[in-house]
Amino acid sequence: MKPAVNYGDEKKEPMRSPLATWERAFIDRNVVGLPRWLRSWQLTMLTLPFTAGLILAGWLARGSEHWLWLASALMAAQWWTDCMDGTLGRLRGEGLVKWGYYMDHLLDFCFMSAMFVGWALMLGSGPAQFLMLMLMLVYGAMMVSSWLLFGATQRLKIVYLGLGPTEVRLLFVVVNTLIIVMGKEILSVMALATTLALALGVLGWMAWSTQRRLWELDKEALAEGGRS
Prior knowledge:
By secondary structure, this protein is mainly α. The protein is built from eight helices and no strands.
């Protein structure tokens, strides 16, 4: 559920990503047609079975990579519910503002982590599995960094390097498709180590730029306080 009021879209930094405009138009066009019995919190909570399904798909993919089609389908389904829940709640005045912010981001974290867990299960024990779990931790740290920034500034930034949550989900679907077509051998130790190094670089850049931004805000507030 996307935040509203103190957690709302007015507190969200502009969504400047390749699919943001299309996604917004899709939501506005389709949310009004959802059935009256459907509630925003029900859409949010569907992430729980979707998360379990991702892990199951990864475990089954040990025998056949084609089970990753299930993972990609769940990725698309979770994107749809995540798009619709907040807008539906605001449209119908359900008022689940703080609950929606908390549960939406908690479940998003669980869901995206489950994709890495599924891949790790598919790879089996060994260095590749270890590197995949390290990637999960780094990606999770990126998500946490974004939420901590919101706590400090009341501005939610979820697009980095031109990629938002929708583009990341699409990237995961592309990875699943490549694994199905080319085999899980493409997730070699070298490929995963290189990806981990790049991810650590992005995380380091996020942390550096965020702390500089907060430092400057603190210094500005201190200067204003001295002048008052």
